Amino acid sequence: MPCLARSAADGEIEKITLGHPLLDDYLVFVVARARINTWLAVAYDLKVFFEVVGKEPAVVTTADVFAFLSAQRAPRRGERVVRLDGEAGLAARTIARRLSSVRGLYGYLCAREDTGVRRNPVPASLAARRPGARRGRGGMPLIRTPRTLPRVLAPAEVDALRAALRTHRDRAMVDAMVLGGLRRCEVLGLRLEDLGAGERRLFVAEGKGGRQRVVPVSARFFAAVGAYLESERPAAAATRRVFVVLKGARRGEPLSAAGLDEILDGARGRAGLARATCHQLRHTCFTRLREAGMALEAIQAQAGHASIESTRLYLHLANDWLEEEYLRAAEAIEAQAARPAGQAGR
Length: 346
Hints:
Layout: E1 5-9, E2 12-17, H1 21-31, H2 36-53, H3 62-73, H4 92-112, E3 125-126, E4 140-141, H5 155-163, H6 168-178, H7 184-189, E5 195-196, E6 201-204, E7 213-216, H8 219-231, H9 257-271, H10 278-291, H11 296-303, H12 308-311, H13 313-317, H14 319-338
Antiparallel strand pairs: 1-2, 3-4, 5-6, 6-7
Helix pairs in contact: 1-2, 2-4, 5-9, 6-8
């Protein structure tokens, strides 16, 4: 059975192993091409897969993959409890990610040609039902992931959350997400040299997919981060990371993702909010920017999206835009219908 082990230095993970030569080789391959969150997710997904399957990688079959899929979809909270995405077990996106991780492993093992693996047991999709259909078109995905709209916070909820934060550091991190739209990993990855207070800009060096960008951020963020650097950040901190631990044995070391989540959960509870996550703060930022009239292309650049299709999501979240477009079209239809029959074609 695989055993996930991690080793860290200066608060950052340096090595992840599962205790199997082929799996560990693949994790070394992954870390050179992906961010740390992806690395961790892949390692955990593979651990779960081989715990369920209970076989050596070289002898796993497609039947084993379908058995794993069934196990992941099995009800976890009773037969009558179903998630909003239609799954009774894990979320559809979680299952799809795990299948993708396993498919990536076997793609790597097949390419090596020295592992005993000749084919990838994880099909991309089921064959199309229609005879003669081109390969890769019309197939049925192993798991269907619905495109759901994310939740955003109301302005009063943002104010309540911010008021419940206890330090300038915490307010600066929340402002970076709700005013600048940064991801959690991007906030924690900021270095002192990435702060452009004079231009009110941030250099995001560790963006998703390795994409770097420079983004403007409100003066409120720079006021909060300035107060934090002046009065809270330990002078003896050796790291160049902006946000560090303020108390305890790890004082002065980079703040972890779990640490930021704990801070946000505590503030959410004190503010009496039912929900408030890092990604909801990011979604809230771009929804408000779109409602204020910011162009989709500008939001795409601010968000660091590789495709504008990801940014189009905020068209649906920005209710004012949809309402205005609908009313404009409805008025045109009503005006046309109100014309006398003889004038309709003039």
